[in-house]
Amino acid sequence: MTEDTTRVKEEYSSEKLLLFLSVWGKPLVIIAIIAFLASVIFSSSYFIKPKYKSTLIMYPVSTSSISKALLSTTYGVQQDVLEFGAEEQAEQMLQILNSNLIRDRVIAKYDLANHYGIKPNEKYRLTKLYKEYENNITFRRTENMAIKVSVLDHDPQIAADIANDIAALFDSTKTAMQRERVLKAFHIVEGEYLKKQAEIQQMEDSLVKLRELGIFDYETQTEMINQQLAVEIAKGNKRGIEALQAQLDILARYGGAYVSIRNQLEFEKKQLSDLKAKYEEARVDAFESLPQKFVVTTAYKAEKKSYPIRWLIVTITVLSSLFLAIIVIIIIENFSSFKTKKKILNPLTPSP
Questions:
Q1: What Rg do the C-alpha atoms of the chain give, in angstroms?
Q2: What's the pLDDT at 298?
Q3: From start to end of 146-240, where are the E strands?
Q4: What are phi and psi of 348, to 5 degrees?
Q5: Is residue 352 pLDDT above 50, yes or no?
Q6: Does residue 195 register a pLDDT over 80?
Q7: Residue 73 has pLDDT above 70, yes or no
Q8: Which terminus of the chain, N or C, has less C-beta within 10 A?
Q9: pTM of the prediction?
Q10: What is the overall mean pLDDT for the chain?
Q11: Angstrom distance (rounded) from CA 284 to CA 274
């Protein structure tokens, strides 16, 4: 019984579909043809100006400090200057690429306001300009932690130039941001280094004065003079005893200062050595630079347009038109059926 009912329903549905197509098939075909022709015409270059797409792919570097990568020996893990960056560096690269520092320089270099047809006295000019920039220039992180720069423009050469310039601007922008900070660090280290040099020079000058008094090595001299004094006393050499005693008096008077300055000088020279290493690292970071990215694919002039995608526009237009037409037909048929049922249920009453 159930199978018979199902078969009857299927036959009824098929008959209803065939009836629907026999009545409305021709209008639907006409609508599809009109939608097809209209979408083909209105998606042409006469109505929608085509855009060309250029892409550039680059990786961030793992370290931004030249001194850490090349000079420093104080770090536990030596950083490789050739190593590609990871997720953290990729996110930092995205933030810089999306910054107004790069955006404003690109807008100024290519006069994008005029290029996009935005008038100088137009209301909300900057908002429209930035919106157009964001629609045409995008940055995306790939699954391999690279950054993909995509540029759409009506001029294929300008699209390629903008993409390549953005990569170059990333280098100069990041370097400038870091240099502003590292220059201050360099001047701090330089000041401490020069100050330490001056202190050491003052101590060495003091040692020179003490050496002029005959103090060269306090401990050794004291031991040798005491030994010689004992010999002279045993001999009863008065002049020798007086001469040695005079030397001992000088050692007693200035020896403590000599030892203190000498030991302090040794300590200060060790500190100067550490400061010199930091000074050299800061100087290299402040005045030298390395590329901040590895470019995998440079942008080139596109030969085929990327926008609009005509087949997609045509397909969506035809399907949308057919869908809307079917909805309208269903509404019309249901309305007609409703009116017919209403007449049957409410027959006209004869007039008296």
A1: 44
A2: 92
A3: 147-153
A4: -70, 130
A5: no
A6: yes
A7: no
A8: C
A9: 0.65
A10: 79
A11: 16
- Distance in angstroms (rounded) separating the CA atoms of residues 210 and 108: 68
Residue 122 reports pLDDT greater than 80: yes
Q: Indicate the pLDDT class of residue 48, thresholds 50, 70 and 90.
A: low
Q: Read off the tokens for 51.
A: 């855009």
Please report, for residues 141, 155, 290, the alpha-carbon distance to residue 86 in angstroms, rounded to integers and kept in the order given.
Answer: 11, 34, 18
Instruction: Please write the tens of the pLDDT for every residue from 202-229.
Output: 888 887 887 777 777 767 777 776 777 6
Query: Which segments of the chain are extended strands (E)?
Result: 52-60, 137-141, 147-153, 293-297
For residue 262, count CB atoms less than 10 angstroms from its CB and return exposed for 0-12, middle for 13-18, buried for 19 or more.
Answer: middle
Judged by DSSP in three states, 138 sits in strand
Dist. CA 253–CA 213, nearest whole Å: 11
Q: Of all residues in the chain, what percent are helix, strand and coil, respectively (each to 5)?
A: 70, 10, 20
Tokens 């020896």 label which residue?
A: 255
User: Can you read off the two tokens belonging to residue 186?
Assistant: 């360099």
CA dist., res. 248 & res. 253, Å (int):
8
Per the listing, tokens 């209008």 go with 27
Contact 202, 209 (CB under 8 A): no
